[in-house]
Each structure stands twice: as structure tokens, then as C-alpha cells.
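Supplementary Methods S3. Input chains for the assembly prediction are listed below.
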Amino acid sequence: MADEKKLCLSGSGITKVFGIGRQKTVAVDHVDFNFYEGEIISIVGESGSGKTTLAKMLLGLISSTEGDIYFLGQKRDISSQKKKQEYWKNIQAIFQDPFSSYNIFNKIDSVLLDCIHMRGGRKLPYAKKVELMSEACSFVNLKFEELTNKYPFELSGGQMQRLMIARIFLLKPKILLADEPTSMIDACSRATILDMLMQLRDETGMTLIFITHDIGLAYFVSDSVYIMEHGKFVESGTADEVILHPKEVYTQRLINDVPKIYEEWDLSTV
Amino acid sequence: MANVMLEVKELTTKYITRFGEDVYAVDHVSLKVEEGKALGIAGESGCGKSTLALSLMGYYFAPLHYTSGEIIIDGRNISGMNPDEVRKSILGKEIAYIPQAAMNALNPTRKIIHFIEDVIQEHELYITKKDIYDRARKLFETLGLPAEVLQKYPVELSGGMKQRTVIAISVLLLPKVLIADEPSSALDVTSQKMVIKMLRQLMETGLISSLIFITHELPLLYNVTDDIMVMYAGQIVEKANSKEAVFDPIHPYAKGLMGSIIVPEKGLRDVKLTAIPGVPPNLKRPPAGCRFAERCKYVQPECKVHSVDLRELEGGRTYRCIFSEEQLRKAYQNG
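Predicted C-alpha cells for the full assembly:
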């Protein structure tokens, strides 16, 4: 099975150390991973376990102290700004806080137009661009006519997060990295957003990397799960394996911390 | 019959916008919390949960205005009271409030003990600092927080610890009602569990007489509260005890909300999440009929004509729909 799938993003011995000498903090400690094309992968861990640092390294926002990341089988080269931009055509991200994901001085049109330009649509006639933007907005259940000439702060959190997905719809990257995309959104919009992400995956066949502290969410969306504790992957495998039959104490604790409704929730463990 | 700690009758409050428009964010809400009970309020963003919490305290800042209705805390009517009076004699003592971003409310330049001194000295003039310290330490120990926290600055504490500290400070004066507005939404699952444990502890040790817990995370409500009230567009759409509200909702909106629960238990992956399509109505111009009609799967033409009243079932359960319980259940069975 594994050899049929194409390797999309992989790395071995990835390490990130902040600070030097006695103040040194090892945020990510020699992690190995193989992400295959079209998979949904979850990285789960509590606050401070190094999830976001790893995400930033995958995105190329910060460099790793040790270890190389391989993209589509080749060593990733992001040595210059130009090469970085080329890389970012293939990997995009949705962050936790939709409010800080936008430039507040730019109107929503320009956010979406940027995406079209990035895909080489700079010379398209304007009517065509509007058509593309409307299509992207209707994919996420927003109306483009209502959004033109608005600034990002005029939208609600859920709308902003959906607009983020509209961007991804226009860009069609190979990899989408979602860093806690639903933690600031209420349970009802969460279902909508998860549905959209999964639909997008089915349509474009992209790899979806999900970073979350909620193991329930991870179980619901992902094919494979990586559990992270203090910068290390302590357990990994398919979602059913890891969550229904956890081996590590840490994984069991994470599962216990999620509120239960069908059985008694044991509060004495914290 | 237990003592009623908080009773609210037909409370209506509104926001007045810059352009003079009225937005009724809390629309004829009635509720009752008995001694030793916890009430949960659920609903999506923008449905008026937090406005309800603010309104319950009787402490109105523009643009929020009191319109009509009564708020009775332990036999004392505080509706329409002067805000200064409310601040002096109600807040903290009778009713305490933990806002959504409570942990950011701590001034980073002061130690935790200073906040506690502030609160106690405001209400008890002739108390010594040593007495305050002893009282704070005792409280912190009861709640399982280390006493060293008192001598620390807020920046030295983690998010979960800050949140728990704020909760401890809010119950210093032994309030009759504690309103917790999304106390755990910015925390990770482990800290969230600690906060939940603490809320339960407060109830068990009798530090607070009753609790109103506001969140959109239904599994949390289920684990803390006795009753759950579901709000939609400023109105109550369903009220039931927690078990019935989670496993056997009647109102179509409540049903949709329960469909969005994610818990890591076997069989979850086969369940499809039922996202409710559409967006809540604009409360500047609320629809004439049922407010949920636009998004309801089972909508009928008559839904959009007249406003719908709450229906009461046996056992104090209420819901707001033109259909009877049997009709709705049949509709759910047929999909």
C-alpha cells in the first residue's frame, strides 16, 4: 500500500533549537515524518509541544537547526526569496486566528486577486477574474457581490476563516497546512469548515496537514495521526490505531482530556 | 423546593447603534436557577449568549440598554438599578462574572495578591493585609492552586493557570451566582479539563451557590450543568435537562447543534457532521416569523408568518416551534 502512494513531504532528524548555551530550548527534537500525497495528517499535542514550530519549518518561515525537508522527493531549496515564493505556490497555510491573517488595509477583492495573480492569471480580463472569485466564494458559501469593497474587519470570524479557504480554492496548492483552524470558531461553524476542507481535499487531491490539540477532531478528519510531546513524535500510525488503541501514556491522557458524553468523564486525572 | 438564586422574567435588552438602530440581542428571556444548580447556555457565535450574561448582572454600559423585564437575585430585584449602585452592592458579592478573555484582564505590572487586596478592601474597609493573605491562601489551597501563585506576576503564569487564578479571584466574596462566559475556549484540552474540574469544585465546596456556564462546546456543558438552554438569535429555543438536551433535542436548531459534536469515541468516523447551512438573521431587522425558518430543514410556509411562542412540555421542558413534539420526531425519523 505504502509504495503505491507518492511521497509528498518528508524529513528525518528535523530539529529546531532556540537560544544558545544554558538558555537553549529544544522546540522540535529529531522528528521523522513521511507525508503522502492526498492524505490527511494530524499532528496532535498540547500547548508548547512544538507543533507550531514544526509547522513554521514545514512552511519555510524559519529554518531548521538540523535535518533537511524533502519536497516531492527532492531536497527543498528555499535559499532565496524567489525560490521561497516558488515553494509557497505549492504549500499554503490557514492559521488559528483569522483576524490576524489579513492585511487590514487591503480590501477583500485584492486578497483574492492576489491569489489569481499568483497562479499566473495577471493578464486575464477583469470579468474572468470576477468569475473566478465568485466561484471561489460560492464554494465556501459566501456571496462575492456582498464582499466586494469590504475590508476584512467587517466580516465575522467564521466568514474570514471561510474566505481563507476560498483563497486556497483559488491557489490549489499541493499541500495545505491548517494550524488549529477551528479553535477560535464555534462548534457549529466548525462542522462547516471541516466539511469544506475535506471537500477541497477530495476535489484537488491535495495533502492536508492538520495541527490541533483536540484529539477528537484529529480522529474525525485524519487518515494518519502523529502525537507530539516535548518536541518529539511519541506515537504515530493510522487514526484508528492511535486513538482507539493508544500505546503511550501521553496519548491516553490526551484522549482522557477531551470531554466525553457517552461515558463517564474522569476528572480526577488532572 | 430549593431556594431560587436567580430568577429572570421576560428580560429584554438592546444595543443602540451609532445610526440609532435598535438591535434586540436578548429578547424576552426567562430563566430560573436554583441553589446548588448549574445552568448551561449554548448557541453559536452572535446569538446573544454573552449579551445575556452582561444583562444578567444589571450593569449596563452604552451601547447596551435595558428595555424591560425583571432580574431577581435571591429575592432582591435589581432590574433598572443605578449602575453605580449595582457596582457597589451587587457585583462580586451577589453575582460574579468571568469574561471571555479573563486571563488577559490581569495587569502585567502587579502581583496576583494585589488584585485580591483590591477586591477585598473595596468591600471590607478595616481588614489587614495579613488577613487578606491568609484568606487568599486558604481559598487557593481549597481549589488546588499552589499558594506561591499569589506572589507571582501574571506573565509568570501559563494560560490555564491565569484562567484558574481569575476564577479564584472572582469567587473571593462568595457570590450567589457565578457567570462563566466561555472560560475555557482559549485553552488546550488539558487546561480546559482543569478549569472544568475547578468549576465543579466550586459547586461542591459551596463557594458559589449557583453557576451559569456559557459555551458552545456541548460536551463541556453536558459534564458540568444540570440544565441546558439553547439560544438562537436572541431568543431561547429550547430548555431541558442536560441529558435530554444533548441526546434527545426537540427543536430543529438544537438538533443541528448536537449534530456538530465531536468526541473521540468509536463509531465517530462514520458519522457525518450536520452543519447547519446559512447564517443567523440580522437582528436589526429580525424576520417576522420563526427566526430559524430561513435555515430550517422542516420549514413550512406558516413558519414565516407569525412569531412563535415557547411551548411547555411536562417536566418543565420548553421549546419554540410551531410543530408538536410528535410531528418533529416523525420528521427526524424520516430524515
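Chain A is about 35% helix and 25% strand. Chain A touches chain B through 43 residues (CB under 8 Å).
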